[in-house]
Amino acid sequence: MKEGVHPEYHKINAVCACGNAVELGSILPEIKVEICSACHPFFTGKQKLIDSAGRIDKFNKKYGKQTAK
Fold first, then answer.
1. 0.70 cut: is pTM over it?
2. Three-class DSSP labels, the chain
3. What is the pLDDT of residues 39-68, one digit of tens each?
């Protein structure tokens, strides 16, 4: 392999917003993720609503249960 062409490879800890840390290799100095396998509903079997910028309220207002007038 040629010298100086390939990026440096580091062992780092990827940290999730829930606090879970996973050791892996990367060329980046650090990785921060919003959701991981420890808190993702597909892997845990639990439904968790993550409301970003009021999207759930906006959806409920537009398509939610409407009362008869």
1. no
2. CCCCCCCCCEEEEEEECCCCEEEEEECCCCEEECCCCCCCHHHHCCCCCCCCCCHHHHHHHHHCCCCCC
3. 876 667 776 566 666 777 788 888 887 655
- Beta strands 10-16 and 31-33 are parallel
CA atoms 47, 48, 52, 53: torsion sign: positive
CB 35 within 8 A of CB 51: no
- CATH number, domain 10-63: 4.10.80.400
